[in-house]
Amino acid sequence: MLRLLRETTARAGRRNISWSCSGSFVLGCRSTYRVLAIETSCDDTSVAIVDYKRASNAAKNEPGLTGSLRVLQHSTVTANNDAYAGIHPLVALHSHRANLAPLVKKLLAKCETLPSHSNHNVSDGPSIDLVAVTRGPGMRSNLSVGLDTAKGLALAFNVPLIGVHHMQAHALTSRLLSAMENVDTQQITPRFPFLSVLVSGGHTMLIDSTGLTEHKILAETQDIALGDCLDKAARVILTPDQLKAPYGGALERFSFDQDSAGHWNYNYAAPSRRQDELERRPTEWGWSLSPPLAESKGGEKSSRRMVYSFTGLTTSVERLVKSKTSAASTFTTEERRCLAREVQRIAFEHLASRILLYLSSSGNDWKGDTIVVSGGVASNRFLRYVLRKMLDVRGYSHIELSFPPVSLCTDNALMIAWAGIEMYEAGFQSNLDIGPLNKWSMDRRAADGGILGVGGWIPNCT
Ligand code: AMP
Ligand code: ZN
Where does the Gcp-like domain lie (predicted)? Predict the structure, then answer.
């Protein structure tokens, strides 16, 4: 922790940022403290109130973070964008404005009767010891609603504020889960390093997470995100009555059958060689889809570039549906389902391909044993199945795939609370002058310097 803080202090110095203790409420050696967290980066208005219990002195000797987390309140309102083909920024903004303050008020009131850990008198009202809020990346005006509310709460409670990196929070979701499952103050897992796969409506990233603020981007999309690709495919494949948000989830439900025991029938064989992954698989309807980058100029070498690409696949699906729905053609439900399965298979195999390329090229250099898969698309059960099968068939069955539960995969304030706690425990809090960040890299090699490079961090003085 001290090393992390020293390095950051040196970097902050280079950027002419002066460190000063905020002088606000300090949590010191308190064994348990209460956190209020807010998420408003996109179309979800989410608020959580949690208690974090630090490790006892004995457990503190264990390497890494030790502790446990208890969820007191958690609630999310999603903006109604049904009238639009996607998220309308103004609809989301108005939804945050209308819902955030009432949600905070409601959840605080529900906590009023619970015992507080500070010296605060319960009869004075609810007590909060730390406020965490998404600072970026995301839609700036939407982030502002959350950030300004969080600043007001931090001032009112006279407690520290933490401006959280949304994607870092997604990457830490499995550690959040471990903290939630810890009955007592045990070690938080997975321990670093681990690989993070973040698949959402706006991002597709493969990340080597070697520390709390150390996330090296190994591959990201060069065009649209995986979630966007599935949403666009769903819009053309599904009928209007089947098209319910989230569209990726509607596409998944439409595609597969469940047996009487509730098991999904995937009838899927993973490609055992990379070559097989790049080949078109003809369907019984005579068409086939090309895997991304398989036919890229530059041949084999180009197909191995550490990037993701989903635009070509999306366009092929849109073209195929257009030709099928023209007057001369029929497009049965079975054929639609086949297309829905194919677009998911190809997209998920493409996702897995970069993980496999990284694992095979790094040999024994990568010391981890876990791949965390998070973001809205990670809730897709077929994605989970494909990734497991692809790792197994290529000799990586010893690597664990960690999928947080669906409720933690989509945008939520619990992950913001957790990332805030991890940053606080590592010695950081945010200055009250921070603003929302539309773009904010996770990787310190990026122009903005990554999570710690953007300024606004100050030591938490504990
Ligand atoms: P996020 O940006 O993390 O909130 O994730 C939203 C994205 O996840 C959207 O593109 C959704 O369509 C997608 N999504 C949600 N559930 C599923 C699912 N079961 N299968 C595929 N995509 C999904
Ligand atoms: Zn997200």
Answer: 79-418
